[in-house]
Design goal:
alpha+beta; Rossmann fold; Jelly Rolls; 3 domains; 10-stranded mixed β-sheet; 7-stranded antiparallel β-sheet; about 20% helix
Length: about 550
């Protein structure tokens, strides 16, 4: 009896396998055009594996452990043979690991090698999450005909660029990832990661930030240094930006995303590009963070991917399937964003009120933001643990967080689509951030985050209309609940704290506190704009 097989089946609520009798061939050598060899493991049933479609998984996180147990094994037990390859410079593969910059050339070479193997069964499905999904986009416009489907999960075609937005620099995700990969091949890496957590969090407060990698690991990370020093337009990122390939993707794509995932906006952008180009694509978005365990990728590989690999049509379903939080139910739609939702302004009003009626004259609300005691990131979009939906009571009690709340709702309010905010803002300093969070307050007064976003401003010492793009959402505010909006000036360490000096993130050494004001009067009608479901005519 294979204990891990049974545990994964139970954890992911999978149907019993076709077989648990597998053979794993380790360290298959895949030659690259420059002479480097990458290592791969092949998982297959002991009997009949050569005739099966191949699920190809490429990534830098090793070939065993979770990748083998929770992804390769369940697929190999249920109709695939599985090839798990370590990307260049990781876990025995030759060459130097240069994150995301060699995946196109190496991915195409791997596919060319794979179709020539004597055990190849005639078809391929590309599978994997995060980096393992990004590598799929790297080759999406030049796939050999043997590739029948792509299933990228919590991944987009230009991953690092999400961290480099000029209007809001993400700190925690690229730093935590750089720290993780720096130590992942050391003995007892998982235990070390747990013990490393406190040191990593402390390192994020390092000034200047350019020394944070050494503070955390004792070594310099070229990737993190590039993230700090090079903006999104730098040539350094060109080799890992595959957005132009999306519309030329040649196979059906099933994208799996999470409402609290770091790559959600880019993944939705990629899905829209596929649909606008007339490519066959479908989208699933669940109530997940980047690392939430879910059975959906395995089920999509077995239902969508395996059917296509066998020359069959996958089971019929709508192009878009969304988990609607608040309602706590899956719903099907024809598109993203779905039709039938119209923008409605909920205005910030005096006295902490939020409502659809524009504000009358009022004095601004004020708070003090101190980067030496930055407003913390609580739940929401996080790379590791601690993300998702959480109680915001302690956060909202801080003096550097403003809240605006509706009266109890007379009817359900369903919000699905892109959420934005327009906040009229002024700071005592030219450089400041505006963070906006949408929350659902239940009848007991518990405030739970729905979605949020941040924008960095220059010239903030003049009254400025800050336009904040929040994460997209699908949420139903129940009758009797209240809609709440938070306004603050940070969510550290998800976003780098604004030092107030305007100095580059890598070299800033001073922290300046600022007096912030939020305006809500007829000339400055601050509001959150929610895509609300239209009421049926006559209803």
């Amino acid at each position: 009896m294979n204990l891990s097989s049974h545990l994964v089946q139970r954890l992911l609520r999978l149907d019993p396998p076709i077989t648990r009798d597998l053979v794993v061939r380790h360290d298959l050598r895949t030659p690259m055009p420059d002479g480097v060899e990458l290592l791969a493991d092949r998982w297959a049933p002991r009997v009949g594996g050569e005739s099966l479609p191949t699920a190809l998984i490429r990534g830098p996180y090793g070939r065993r452990g979770v990748i083998g147990t929770a992804l390769a094994r369940p697929l190999a037990e249920r109709g695939f043979q599985v090839l798990v390859q370590s990307t260049r410079g990781t876990f025995g593969s030759g060459g130097t690991f240069d994150p995301m910059r060699r995946e196109r050339e190496d991915g195409l070479a791997t596919l060319a090698w794979l179709v020539e193997q004597p055990w190849f069964g005639g078809s391929i499905v590309l599978v994997g999450a995060s980096y393992l999904g990004h590598v799929q986009w790297a080759v999406a416009d030049r796939l050999p005909p043997q590739v029948k489907a792509m299933i990228p999960q919590v991944a987009e075609s230009a991953s690092t660029l999400e961290f480099l937005r000029a209007d809001g620099f993400s700190l925690e995700a690229p730093f935590a990832w750089a720290v993780m990969v720096a130590g992942q091949e050391r003995r007892f890496a998982r235990l070390r990661n747990v013990l490393q957590g406190r040191r990593t969090r402390r390192a994020l407060t390092t000034l200047p930030l350019g020394r944070a990698d050494v503070a955390a690991t004792g070594r310099r990370s070229d990737y993190f240094q590039d993230v700090l020093a090079r903006d999104a337009d730098d040539e350094r990122w060109a080799a890992m930006d595959h957005r132009r390939r999306v519309a030329r993707t040649t196979v059906p794509v099933s994208s799996i995303a999470g409402w609290y995932d770091i790559f959600l906006p880019g993944q939705l952008r990629d899905f829209r590009a596929l649909r606008e180009a007339g490519r066959p694509a479908r989208l699933t978005v669940g109530p997940w963070t980047h690392v939430s365990p879910t059975d959906t990728p395995i089920r999509e590989a077995l239902g969508f991917g395996l059917a296509l690999a066998r020359g069959e049509e996958p089971p019929e379903r709508a192009p878009v399937r969304l988990y609607v939080t608040g309602e706590e139910a899956w719903r099907d739609f024809d598109s993203w964003p779905p039709h039938g939702y119209e923008p409605r302004h909920f205005h910030l009003r005096p006295g902490g009120e939020l409502g659809e009626r524009p504000p009358a004259g009022s004095t601004p609300d004020r708070y003090r933001y101190d980067p030496a005691d930055p407003t913390p990131a609580v739940g929401g979009v996080r790379l590791g643990s601690g993300g998702g939906r959480v109680d915001n009571t302690a956060l909202e009690a801080r003096p550097d967080v403003l809240t605006y709340t509706t009266a109890p709702l007379a009817d359900d309010v369903e919000v699905i689509g892109d959420v934005t905010a327009e906040v009229w803002f002024r700071s005592s300093l030219p450089h400041a951030d505006v963070f906006v969070r949408l929350c659902d307050v239940d009848p007991r007064g518990r405030s739970v985050n729905v979605c949020d976003g941040l924008v960095s401003l220059s010239g903030a010492d003049e009254t400025t209309r800050a336009e904040v793009a929040l994460w997209p959402t699908a949420h139903r505010f129940r009758r009797g609940h209240r809609v709440r909006v938070q306004v603050s000036s940070g969510a550290f360490p998800r976003y780098a704290r604004n030092t107030g000096t305007g100095e580059p993130h890598a070299t800033a050494t001073r922290l300046l506190a600022a007096e912030q004001s939020v305006h809500h009067d007829p000339d400055h009608p601050s509001a959150i704009v929610l895509p609300v479901r239209r009421q049926p005519s006559g209803g």
